Amino acid sequence: YLLFMNNDIECLKADSVEEMLQFVQQEEVGICGARLLYPDKMIQHAGVVMGFGGIAGATFIGTHETENSYMHRAACIQNYSAVTAAVLMTKKSLFDQVGGFREELAVAFNDVDFCLKIRALGKRVVYTPYALFTHYESKSRGLEDNPEKVKRFNGEIVCLAKHWPEILRKGDPYYNPALTLRKSNFTLRDLSVEKVGEPFPLEILKDIV
After folding, report:
1. What is the model's pLDDT at position 142?
2. Domain count of the fold of the chain
C-alpha cells in the first residue's frame, strides 16, 4: 500500500491510518481519503465533487466539524468520485497500473485525475471521516496569487477537463444534479441562474465541456 500525505498535515486521531487501511485492503476499493480540518476546526475536505466551480472541488468547505451537513454526509463513510491526495491511501499495484500521478498536473488536480483513473478500472474511491487530520492548506507552496501561478493553475484546469470531459458534461454520479455547483454545501440550485444538471460554465472550458 501507498500512503500519500502533504507536509502540512497533522494527525488528530491515532488510528487514522488503520481506518483508511481497512477500506483499501478490500478488493473493490482502490483509494481511501480522509476528513481534513482547518486549524479552526472548519472542514477543508470531506470528499471531492466533479463539477464544483466548473471543474472539481472539496465538499463542505467552511462547515464546522460539529455542524450537521447535508444528509450528514460529512460524517458518513461513502463513495466519491475523488478525494484529495493531501492524505490518500491506495494499493501500490493500482498506482503502478495507471501510471501514478499525471506529470502535466504538477500541482493541482493530480489527485482528482488519479482517482478518476482508478475509478475507470472499476474500483471505488472511499471517504472516511474516521481518519482525521488538520491540513494547514498551501502553507508550504503558497496560494495561487501571481500571474505565473494563475497561468499554471488554469492550464491544469484545462488539462483535467480534456482528459475527463464526460463526467463534467454529464455530472458527478455521486452528486444530485438538482444541487448547485456554485457552493460546496449541497444546497439546491437557484433555477434562475443554473438549470438542473447544467455544468458550471468556465470560460476557459467553453470548447471542452
Report:
1. 54
2. 1
